[in-house]
C-alpha cells in the first residue's frame, strides 16, 4: 500500500504535566505516514482522490493551538483519532517529538500506529 507523508510539522501548543507548562506554548514536531492508495489520484491527476497533506497540516496546526494536554501520549492519541475520523485515513503511523523537554536529548516523544475501526 502507498503512503502520504508529513515530516517535521511544527505546531505550537500547551503541553506538559508540570504546573508551569499549563501557561506557556511549546513546540511539538510531528511526522505522519498515512496509508492510502494513490493510484486513482495519479491516474486522474486529481487532488480530490488522495489525502491533501496541506489540509491535514492546517487542521493539526489549528487543533494544537486550540487544545491543551498533559502527556505527549494524550496529544498523539487525539491527533491520530482526528486524522482517522476527519480525513478517512485507514491506517497511520504518528511520531510526536517534544524538542527541548530534556536538555540532554535532541528530542523526546512517542510513536504510535493506529487503524480505523
Ligand atoms: N512519557 C512521557 N514522559 C514525560 C512526559 C510525557 O508527556 N510523556 N512529559 C513530561 C513533562 O511534561 C516534560 O516534558 C517537561 O519537560 C515528563 N515526562
TrEMBL record:
<keyword id="KW-0456">Lyase</keyword>
<dbReference type="Pfam" id="PF02152">
    <property type="entry name" value="FolB"/>
</dbReference>
<keyword id="KW-0289">Folate biosynthesis</keyword>
<comment type="similarity">
    <text>Belongs to the DHNA family.</text>
</comment>
<dbReference type="InterPro" id="IPR043133">
    <property type="entry name" value="GTP-CH-I_C/QueF"/>
</dbReference>
<comment type="function">
    <text>Catalyzes the conversion of 7,8-dihydroneopterin to 6-hydroxymethyl-7,8-dihydropterin.</text>
</comment>
<feature type="domain" description="Dihydroneopterin aldolase/epimerase">
    <location>
        <begin position="4"/>
        <end position="114"/>
    </location>
</feature>
<dbReference type="InterPro" id="IPR006157">
    <property type="entry name" value="FolB_dom"/>
</dbReference>
<dbReference type="GO" id="GO:0004150">
    <property type="term" value="F:dihydroneopterin aldolase activity"/>
</dbReference>
<protein>
    <recommendedName>
        <fullName>7,8-dihydroneopterin aldolase</fullName>
        <ecNumber>4.1.2.25</ecNumber>
    </recommendedName>
</protein>
<dbReference type="InterPro" id="IPR006156">
    <property type="entry name" value="Dihydroneopterin_aldolase"/>
</dbReference>
<comment type="pathway">
    <text>Cofactor biosynthesis; tetrahydrofolate biosynthesis; 2-amino-4-hydroxy-6-hydroxymethyl-7,8-dihydropteridine diphosphate from 7,8-dihydroneopterin triphosphate: step 3/4.</text>
</comment>
Amino acid at each position: 500500500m502507498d503512503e502520504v507523508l508529513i515530516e517535521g510539522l511544527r505546531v505550537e501548543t500547551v503541553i506538559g504535566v508540570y504546573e508551569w507548562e499549563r501557561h506557556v506554548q511549546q513546540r511539538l514536531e510531528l511526522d505522519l505516514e498515512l496509508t492510502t492508495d494513490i493510484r486513482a489520484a495519479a491516474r486522474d491527476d486529481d487532488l480530490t482522490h488522495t489525502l491533501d497533506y496541506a489540509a491535514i497540516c492546517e487542521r493539526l496546526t489549528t487543533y494544537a493551538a486550540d487544545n491543551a494536554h498533559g502527556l505527549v501520549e494524550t496529544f498523539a492519541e487525539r491527533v491520530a483519532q482526528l486524522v482517522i475520523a476527519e480525513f478517512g485515513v485507514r491506517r497511520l503511523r504518528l511520531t510526536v517529538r517534544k524538542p527541548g523537554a530534556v536538555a540532554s536529548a535532541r528530542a523526546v516523544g512517542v510513536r504510535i500506529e493506529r487503524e480505523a475501526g
